[in-house]
Each structure stands twice: as C-alpha cells, then as structure tokens.
Hints:
Layout: H1 3-13, H2 23-74, E1 78-83, E2 88-95, E3 103-107, E4 116-122, E5 127-130, E6 140-146, E7 149-155, E8 162-169
Antiparallel strand pairs: 1-2, 1-5, 2-3, 4-6, 6-7, 7-8
Amino acid sequence: MTVSAVTCSRLARKPRGSRAFSLIEIVAVVVIMGILSSIALPRYSAFIAQQQLEGAERRLVADLALAQRRARQSSASQSVVFNVGQSKYQLPGMAHPDHPGQAFEVRLGDEPYRAMVVSASFGGDATLIYDGYGNADTAGTVVIAVGSRQKTIDIDLATGKPRKLGQVQLEIE
C-alpha cells in the first residue's frame, strides 16, 4: 500500500457531514448576530448624531471666530448672516476657504453635519455684525440640532467671542 492509498482510505472513512456546518448551527449564528446588531444599532446611530452635532458646533464656532478676526484685521465690519429655514450661514465679502472664487457659505444641513439651525437671534434678526474692532453689534445665540440633540452657541457682547453653552437632549414623545 502506498502513501497516497493510505491517505485516500483515511479520507474515505470520515463521515461526510463532519466537514460542514449544519443548518441549525448556521441559524443559531444568524439569530445571535441579529440580536447583537439590534442592540448595537441604536447606540451607533446616537454616536453618529453626536459626532455630527459636535462637528457642526466646532465649524460654527471656528467660523464666528474667523469673522471676528477678519473684522479686526481689516478694520472693517464683517457680518455673519444666518438662514434658519435653509440651515446655512454666510460670511459676505469673504471667499470660501475650500472653494476659492465662491462666496463663503456653510450649509449645516448637508453632509457631513446634517444639522439643523433651530434659531439664530441677534437683537431681533439673524445677522451678527462684528465692527472693525471685532466687537459684536449685539449679544445673541445660535441653536443647532441633530435629531433629538441640540447645542447652543452664545455670542458674548463684551468680547464678541462665541461660547459653547452645552447640549440639551430633547425628549421625543
């Protein structure tokens, strides 16, 4: 008997079903994966919403600081115009840093933020104006939201600087 004949005879003795998974084993694995994903999916969705909200907040605070700095450097007023209905804001007179030649406009409702501008109030209107010294014309707030979470950014009248006031979890009934 040769080596290959011994190997073939050993393989022939193995039961055929021992090399594969049974239908019950596959169904059990699929059920366990379904249970784990049903637990993980809501947490993952909440995590994504939190990241989008924090990203929108960081972008807005950075752009407000940019507008204030631009007003100081140019010794001319710089406004930030909010459009609550379209969840966007503009910095008129400034070129977009990512798209030269285009107006500086940020649409928070689009990717990657998918945030909604809930309100923007600066002395009765939705426009914040920094004078040539970087002082805000009025104090005010901007509220942004993603899903049931929202954050408020406050503009301090004394310094003109934006401040993050925190997060509120809205209860959905």
